[in-house]
Amino acid sequence: MSALSLPRIPDPRAIPVAGDDHHLAPVDPSMLTVDSLRRRFGQAQDFSAPIPGDGALAGVEREASPAAVLVGLVERDNALHVLLTRRTEHLRDHAGQISFPGGRAEPEDDSAVTTALREAREEVGLEPAHVEVLGRLPQYTTITRYVVTPVVAIIHPPMDLRLDAHEVAEAFEVPLPYLMTPAHHRRHVFQFNGGQRQFLSMPWRSPTAQEREYFIWGATAAMLRNLYHFLQR
After folding, report:
1. What pLDDT sits at residue 62?
2. Are 153 and 41 in contact (CB under 8 A)?
3. How many CA atoms lie within 13 Å of 5's alpha carbon, on the beta-carbon side?
4. Torsion angle, CA of 170/174/176/180, rounded to 10 degrees?
5. Is the CB of residue 133 less than 8 Å from the CB of residue 34?
6. Tens of pLDDT, residues 174-202
7. What is the pLDDT of residue 108?
8. Do residues 80 and 108 lie in contact, with contact meaning Cβ atoms separated by under 8 Å?
9. What is the pLDDT of residue 4?
10. SS3 of residue 120 by DSSP
11. How far apart are CA 125 and CA 148, in angstroms?
C-alpha cells in the first residue's frame, strides 16, 4: 500500500485509546536544563528515530518535499516549555491541529536550520536573535511525503510574538517535563479496510482559567516522542 493510499484520520479524538506508556521512565529532570541539553546535543550522535513517520514506513509514490520545524524550548522561570501553535481552522492542510512552527523549505534556504528559523519568524514573529540552536533530530516523513527535520533550540525571552493570523490561531507553551513523561503518551490504533495506522497523542490541559485542552497528536507527538528517546539514551 502506498503512502498516498493510506487514509487520513478525520477525527483523531474519536479513535479509542489502546494504552499509554506509563511503564517507561520519564526523562530525568536533571537532563531537562539548558546546560544539560547543550551537552547532549554537543555529543557525537548515532541516533536513529524510533518513529520515522508513516511516509517512511509505507511504499512511496510521491516525490518527497523537504521541510523543517522549530522545536523551541522557552527558558522561563528556571524551567523549559515547548512552544507550540494551533493552526487556523480554514487551512487546507492540518486545519486546527497542534504543530511546531515550521514548513516547507524554500529554494533560497541553505539548510534545515534556515528553514526552521524563517518559518518561525513568518508564523509567530520569533526573531532569530532570541533563538539558540542546539541541533537536529532525525528526519520524520509525513503521510503527505514531507521530509521534516526537527531543529531543537532554546528560546531566550523576552520575545514579542506576532502571529500570522492566516495560519496561526494561537501560540502556547507546554512544560517540557510533562511531554517527556511517557505516562502522558497515549497510543491509538486506527482501523481501516486492509490495515491500520497507529499514532500517539499527548493531551495537555492548560492551567489557565479557561482550562482548555490541547490535543497534541500525529507528527508533532511523534517528534516529541523521538526527542524523549534521544534524551533517554
Report:
1. 62
2. no
3. 9
4. -100
5. no
6. 999 999 999 999 999 987 777 788 899 99
7. 96
8. no
9. 47
10. helix
11. 21
| CA distances for 184 relative to 56, 102, 171, 174, 216, angstroms | 25, 24, 21, 12, 11
Domains of the chain in start order, with CATH, are: 3-7+36-232 (3.90.79.10)
Query: Three-state DSSP class for 2?
Result: strand
CA 145 to chain centre: 16
Altogether, the residues listed in the chain come to a count of 233
- Decide the pairing of beta strands 146-155 and 65-76: parallel
Cell of 231: 534524551
Would you say 217 and 12 are in contact if contact means Cβ atoms under 8 Å apart?
Answer: yes
C-alpha cell of 10? 478525520
DSSP 42: H
Residue 208 clears pLDDT 90, i.e. is over it: no
Kindly provide the residue ranges of all beta strands, DSSP E only, lying in the chain, ordered along the sequence: 17-20, 65-76, 79-87, 98-99, 102-104, 131-136, 140-141, 146-155, 168-175, 186-192, 195-201, 204-205, 213-214
Give the per-residue pLDDT at 11: 86
C-alpha grid cell, residue 4: 498516498
Residues 96-123 have pLDDT tens digits of: 689 999 999 999 999 999 999 999 999 9
In eight-state DSSP terms, residue 39 is H
Position of cell 521541510? 67
Helix ranges restricted to H, the chain = 34-42, 54-57, 112-124, 176-179, 218-232
> Which of 116-120, 147-151, 153-157, 205-209 has the lowest average pLDDT?
205-209
